[in-house]
Design brief:
Helix content is 85%, strand content 0%. It is mostly helical.
């Protein structure tokens, strides 16, 4: 994980900058929390989909079914999506933290 941690931090900054260009600062802590939770829900969905694909892959592996590779490939795609969603969660957390600087 440490191999890409600094790059991920940079991606969070890029995501935050893009979000700030499209959307105003959060109007309240309630709004910020809701946005963070929406992004977290999307992250959980992607993780759950990866988990389901890997569970299905394991069933294929146990029966020597070559479809295991398809499921693992789906899991890879879901994991990439999850990584993007995690970056969005981190960016919205940063935006939330910056809200206090703007308001206080």
């Amino acid at each position: 994980m440490n191999a890409v941690q600094e790059q991920v931090k940079e991606l969070v900054k890029v995501e935050l900058a893009a979000a700030n260009e499209k959307f105003p600062p959060f109007h309240s802590a309630h709004e910020g929390w809701a946005v963070i939770m929406e992004e977290l829900d999307e992250l959980k969905t992607e993780v759950n989909m990866a988990d389901a694909s890997l569970t299905e892959a394991w069933e294929h592996i146990k029966s020597n079914n070559p479809l295991a590779k398809n499921e693992v490939n789906w899991a890879r795609s879901y994991a990439i999506n999850a990584a993007c969603e995690a970056i969005q969660v981190a960016a919205m957390c940063r935006k939330f933290m910056e809200m206090g600087k703007q308001n206080g």
